[in-house]
Amino acid sequence: MNNPNTLCSWSGGKDSCFALMRAIEMEYAPAVLLNVLNEEGKISRSHGIPSGILKAQAGAAGLPIHMVSSSWQDYEKNFTGALASLKQEFNVSHAVFGDIDLQPHRDWEEKVCANAGITAVLPLWQQDRKELVMQMLNSGIETMIVSCNMVMGERFLGKMITPSTIQELESVGVDVCGENGEFHTLVLNCPLFSKRIEVDVQQKLQHENYWFTALALRP
Q1: Where does the record place the Diphthamide synthase domain (predicted)?
Q2: Quick one: which of 20, 88, 130, 197 has the most CB atoms within 10 Å?
């Protein structure tokens, strides 16, 4: 099959963005982005990114975005349902994910895709984490840290990922990709976007053992 229609599990962060860029290089044709919001439908489930910013990213990428609200408890059911629905609506046969090397994540993604009758694609799989981050920066991805653990602390919130930020992460013993959930990012610009997304960090909030930014899209 040439240029199979593909959806992207889109977090708004660097890994899903770079995975989609790689998938396009592999001649997959992006048709739609998929994101899971919290129960209130206001911010993304994992990264805490407001839905309006996710819509702005999708608009800049020239792609529709499908957002589904879910609790963690119903996450798998709702995610699988969204995959099945998008398969019908956009005639997609594949789904792109940005995971790098956590086997349980890959197992889950392959399971939910199989249940929806589509194939999981992981373009970043088993690649060196630091090399990947450097490739992301060199490819033109501009990305900001929007949530992080207590080891990093609030000082990292709002920082752009640069070579010096990568050195800082290494100095505090944090994985430079954040693959284990140490931090999450928001892509402000990349080769997929027709224009840069401008956001303001309005607040820095601690929730349990994690720091989050309250973000607003700049008009």
Answers
A1: 8-214
A2: 20
Q: Which helix (H) or strand (E) holds 94?
A: strand 94-96
Instruction: Kindly give the confidence (pLDDT) of every residue in the chain, 219 residues in length, as a single tens digit, with 9 standing for 90 and above.
Output: 467 899 999 999 999 999 999 999 999 999 999 999 999 999 998 789 999 999 999 999 999 999 999 988 899 999 999 999 999 999 999 999 999 988 999 999 999 999 999 999 999 998 898 999 999 999 999 999 999 999 999 999 999 999 999 999 999 999 998 888 899 999 999 999 999 999 999 999 998 889 999 999 998
Task: Give 66's strand partners.
Answer: 34
Which amino acid appears at position 196 of this protein?
Answer: R
Q: Are 94 and 1 in contact (CB under 8 A)?
A: no
Placement of tokens 């994992």 in the chain: 46
Residue 50 is which amino acid?
P
Cα–Cα distance, 161 to 181 (Å, whole number): 16
Q: Considering the entire predicted model, what is its pTM?
A: 0.94
Cβ atoms of 153 and 127 closer than 8 Å: no
Q: What are phi and psi of 43, to 5 degrees?
A: -130, 160
Q: How far apart are alpha carbons 45 and 43 in whole angstroms?
A: 6
Q: CA–CA separation, 106 vs 120, rounded Å? A: 9
Please report how the helices 129-139 and 14-25 are oriented relative to each other, as an axis angle in degrees rounded to 10: 80
From residue 25, alpha-carbon distances to 20, 22, 71, 116 in Å are 9, 5, 34, 25
Structural domains in the chain, sorted by start: 5-121 (3.40.50.620), 129-217 (3.90.1490.10)
